[in-house]
Amino acid sequence: MIGGDCMEKWLTVADLAKETNIPDSTCRRYLSTFEAFFLVKGGSRSKKYERQAVDILKRIKHLYDEGLETNEIHNVLMNEFPIVVDDDKQGEDVATVTPTLATSEDIAEIKAALEEQKRFNQILLERLEQQQKYIKEHLERRDQVLLQSIRELQQQKQAMLETSADTQQKKKRKGILKRLFSRD
């Protein structure tokens, strides 16, 4: 019965149409439109589909009957069925060509990687905040030093102007006194 089991596992489009009560042409359209969800073996004329195709085709028909559009159905199927990753080796023995499905271990590995990335991102954000805080403090200190330097320069300028004005005033007084007391 092992041979019979293996033969029954793979179904033709006609077998699928019969088991799902979906017309042959509609089955072909569904298989083509949503090919990423179907495990297939054989060439273009002798394609056979894994038994799970029956459930997927019934689900697609049900979703169309509910009024969903193709892209909406695709999104629903993404949540309910694994996507088949095909390595494009047609015509070879099924054992070597069987496409890979995502396993729960793969998903757990992906989740762990995402958590690690999340922790890494958090560390980066914290360091960025520390860097921004350092830069802000540094700029504030630099601005204070520059303002103090500007004030000192203004004070020096003012002192020089006052000294210059005093010198000018003294020269004027000397000139007046000289003219008054000169013996010409």
Task: Explain what you see.
The protein is mainly alpha-helical. It folds into 2 domains: 2-101, Multidrug-efflux Transporter Regulator, Chain: A, Domain 2 (Orthogonal Bundle), CATH 1.10.1660; 103-184. It has helices at residues 2-9, 13-20, 24-33, 52-65, 70-80, 94-97, 104-181; strands spanning 10-11, 40-41, 48-50, 84-85, 100-101. The chain has a 3-stranded antiparallel β-sheet. Strands 4-5 form a two-stranded antiparallel ribbon. The longest helix has 78 residues, at 104-181. It starts with a helix and ends with a helix.
Short summary:
By secondary structure, the protein is mostly helical. It has helices spanning 2-9, 13-20, 24-33, 52-65, 70-80, 94-97, 104-181; strands spanning 10-11, 40-41, 48-50, 84-85, 100-101.
